[in-house]
Amino acid sequence: MTRSLPILAALTLSLLLGGCGNRSIGNKIDDQFLGPDVSSSIARADKNLTDPTSHITVTSYNGVILLAGQTPRGELKAKAEQAARTVQGVKKVHNELQVLQPTTALARSNDALMTTKIKTQMLANSTVPSTRIKVVTENGIVYLLGLVTQQEAANAASVVQGVSGVQKIVKLFQYTN
Known about the structure:
This protein is an alpha/beta fold. It has two domains: about 80 residues, Histidine-containing Protein, Chain: A (2-Layer Sandwich), CATH 3.30.1340; about 70 residues, 2-Layer Sandwich (Histidine-containing Protein, Chain: A), CATH 3.30.1340.30. The strands form two sheets. Strands 4, 5, 6 and 7 form a four-stranded mixed beta sheet that branches. Strands 1-2-3 form a three-stranded mixed beta sheet. Helix 2 crosses helix 3. It is globular. About 5% of the residues have low confidence.
């Protein structure tokens, strides 16, 4: 009986946390595996997509894939997108790769700091469903993914606009209304 108590507690916690947001626990688990599967597919597509001349970030939310970062040539950008589309479970691919040299470590640190600021501001704002929004910042561009209403999307974008250093906001939301 004492061994089953921690299992029961973990199951209860999972169900309670799974109730937060519009996605099922299965969707959340699928997304955790989908991102790495897409990254592996991209790595197999062309060695230049994983060498130091490319920096690719793969994000998954509800089966929607965001490819962000930089790659030096347009054909590599296209190969990355095609590789992402071939992965089972991918519903849609947003290829936001820039044909540029990769950003520096300092720029990536600034992007991480900006993402943290944005998430903190969203948590503090009661009109933004922060648990249903994924924020990705790459080279000063903020990408927003999630399952939200159009009003919630507008509220989230408004919060992002107030953070210094944001170059551009790209809304990749799935709307529930």
